[in-house]
Design goal:
There is one protein chain. The chain is α/β, with parallel strands linked by helices and 321 residues long. The chain has 12 helices and 8 strands. The chain is globular and about 65 Å long. Helix 1 links the parallel strand 1 and strand 2. Helix 1 packs parallel to helix 2 and helix 9 packs across helix 10. The strands form 2 sheets. It has a 5-stranded mixed β-sheet with strand order 4-7-6-8-5, sandwiched between helices. A 3-stranded parallel β-sheet has the order 1-2-3.
Length: 321
């Protein structure tokens, strides 16, 4: 668990971890400079339970480096990621341990909290989607074999362009080594103060809304293409060092190569590739149809919506921390 000013909800999360039906052997908590009572709460819990180990950064590391630092301190064969403000279902660890088998990583459903409404579709965790967006397997659901860490090529480089959860998911998917629990594992608290909170985006089906989306997609495409291409180019060069023999891995290398290409025909070839593989690119796996193929043709433009956090509202494109 990486913490930062999480006092408001931290006790609920710690209590839910401590009452797991499959008890964790250790609870690593790394704090990134909290100025509220987060540290007091953790120290009180650590006094009552020796499994809780608190580490405090000497300077602010940012959420990405903070999680990577905490992960590296874990000593167990299996590692689970926890947000500081969620609530785990009592059997979360048990269900994931049963499901992971010989796979490297296990994810599962999370349920928005306090709302209990959720999308019942199984999120698409195909590698071709994960290259662009990690929300199919958000960090607060991840449970993985520590051997996964050994499969990450150039981890120091990749963590500057990919978040910890997306990076772990991409590597596991490249080896076709992902398990999924089709039950809610986590009550995921939604609030604007959350580090991963994104403002709402309207998906209402109307001509006006469709036109607005298209205009915005092409605005982001023109603005962000150089930076997104740079980041995906780094991902491509690192992934080439992996030893996976899976067909999905070869497809990912092809897709990234086309995406970062600058020849006149690269964009068209990328569009055709996305049309052929369109059923793997969207939130839930789709059956092949003309509409799905058309969405695939458009994906090289619509995918920039996933990078809207890089838009001109920020003064510079900073590496992830």
């Amino acid at each position: 668990m990486a913490t930062f000013n999480g006092a408001e909800h931290l006790k609920e999360q710690l209590d839910s971890i401590l009452r797991q039906s499959l008890a964790p052997d250790e609870i690593i908590i790394q704090d990134d400079g909290s100025t509220d009572t987060t540290l007091d709460i953790v120290r009180d819990y650590a006094k009552a339970d020796s499994r809780i180990k608190l580490f405090v950064n000497d300077a602010e590391h940012g959420i990405n480096n903070n999680f990577f630092g905490a992960i590296q301190k874990a000593t167990g064969d299996y590692i689970a990621i926890s947000d500081q403000d969620d609530i785990w279902v009592d059997d979360k660890l048990k269900w994931q341990m049963e499901a992971i088998g010989e796979k490297l990583l296990c994810s599962g459903f999370s349920m928005p909290y306090p709302s209990r409404n959720r999308d019942v579709r199984i999120p698409n965790h195909h590698l071709l989607r994960l290259l662009f967006i990690g929300s199919s397997m958000p960090g607060h659901t991840l449970f993985f074999d520590r051997k996964l860490l050994e499969r990450i090529p150039d981890a120091e480089t990749l963590r500057t362009v990919k978040t910890y959860d997306n990076l772990l998911s991409i590597v596991a998917a490249a080896y076709d080594s992902v398990a999924y629990v089709e039950k809610p594992l986590v009550l995921h608290r939604l609030h604007a103060a959350s580090a991963t909170y994104n403002g709402p985006v309207s998906n209402r089906k109307s001509i006006a809304n469709l036109f607005s989306h298209v205009v915005n997609d092409f605005r982001l495409f023109r603005e962000l293409r150089p930076e997104v291409t740079r980041r995906l180019g780094i991902l491509l060069e690192c992934m080439k060092k992996m030893d996976s023999t899976e067909a999905v891995y070869r497809d990912a290398i092809t897709m990234l190569t086309l995406f970062v290409g600058n020849s006149p025909g690269s964009l068209l070839r990328l569009q055709l590739f996305c049309a052929r593989h369109a059923e793997h690119l969207f939130y839930a796996k789709e059956r092949k149809s003309l509409v799905t193929m058309l969405r695939g043709l458009y994906f090289p433009f619509s995918c920039y919506e996933y990078y809207r956090y890089l838009s001109h509202s920020r003064k510079s494109y900073l590496p992830l921390r």
